């Protein structure tokens, strides 16, 4: 019994020593630092931008530029040029019998502003949509939303602020009715998904948009004292709309990968790349003949030869030069071809250019003006060949 009690006492002593040792270790050994808490990222799209908007004007201006830069060559420059050419055409397309070049050029800032404001409204409305963000992440990751310069919620708020400002500004500039039509077409194209419904509906809305730009820029360039005549309103602008309706699928050739990602049924995706190219090349050559014929330009005139030559280059590139980079370059040729068609009224009546230049200051400088006027007359004679 005594031995058992001794063994039990010894065991209790060892256990007590172990407990004391473990307590000593736990008290003297520093605890490891707590894990760094993970940052919780909110799922709300308005808080997921990687780079906040900086509080200085250049950042905001660059953001607006990223919305529109891809449409400078296809909308801002050509459509503004259409308005200026219309005003210079005088009695061919307007009620102004003798426009002066200086007076017409003085409207250029107003025309550019009108065009850019309408373009900016459309582009923000288009690029703020989730499906557009998917496409742009593939085709144009440098744009404002894919590059996370601002969120979809911020783009929506910017659009809400911009729309009344644009309406008020165009009421002052002129072309307010065309702006309201553009906003209706923008709503159909983007929010009602008219661009995704069918390639024919997409081209139809685009053609109506181009026509609205043409009417609006022409009205601003002509000014309050004059109006557009029936040739422009009921013949020339609808013909330009027909050109856009049948050839605008050119812009879809380089975007096929992104359009496929968002499920957009463009003509090259529905009918195939080869069929789409012929659907561009054939109408381009037809319109390159029809538009000069509408203005009754002679077969040997520059006004007839120029659209045929540029149209031939465009059609050849569409059929022979394929791939994304080639299609992007061919799209630029399409924009140039449209500019050539827009300029055809100036080839119809050379006296229009002469009358416009009569009021321009460099042509009223005494002996220098005589020399310059003679050079201008020589240029007119060359155009008549």
Automatic annotation (TrEMBL):
Keyword Membrane annotated: yes
GO molecular function: transferase activity, transferring alkyl or aryl (other than methyl) groups
Residue stretches spanning the membrane: 158-183, 302-323
Main location: membrane
InterPro entries, per the entry: Prenyltransferase_related, UbiA_prenyltransferase
Kinase listed as a keyword: no
Entry keywords, A to Z: Membrane, Transmembrane, Transmembrane helix
Protein location: Membrane
Organism domain of life: Eukaryota
UniProt topology in membrane: Multi-pass membrane protein
GO cellular component, one term: membrane
Pfam families: UbiA (PF01040)
UniProt-listed PANTHER family: CHLOROPHYLL SYNTHASE (PTHR42723), CHLOROPHYLL SYNTHASE, CHLOROPLASTIC (PTHR42723:SF1)
Protein name: Uncharacterized protein
Native organism: Ramalina farinacea
The organism's taxonomic lineage, starting at the top: Eukaryota, Fungi, Dikarya, Ascomycota, Pezizomycotina
